[in-house]
Amino acid sequence: MFVMDPHFASLLEKLASSRRAAGLSREDVEKKLVLGPGWVDRFETGDRLPSLATLIALLNLYELKISDFFESVELTDDIFIADRYLTAKPSGNNLILIFQLGKYRANVELEDSSIDEFNAILLTLRDELATASASEAIVFSFLKAVELWPHLNPSDLWYFFISRAYQDDFNHPASSAGKDWSQSWKRAGGWSLEAIFLEHYNPFLKQHGIELQMPDPALKREYLDQMDILGHAGVEKADVIVVGETDTGEKVAYGVVHVKASFAERRTDDVPLSRELIQGNYASPLVTMDCKATPAARPFNKGELGETQDSGKKVSSKRLDIERERAFDAVFSYNTNTRPTPRGANVSARIYVCGFQDPDDPFSRYLIRKWRDRQGAY
Question: Of 31, 216, 223, 378, which is least packed with CB atoms within 10 Å of its CB?
Answer without folding.
Answer: 216
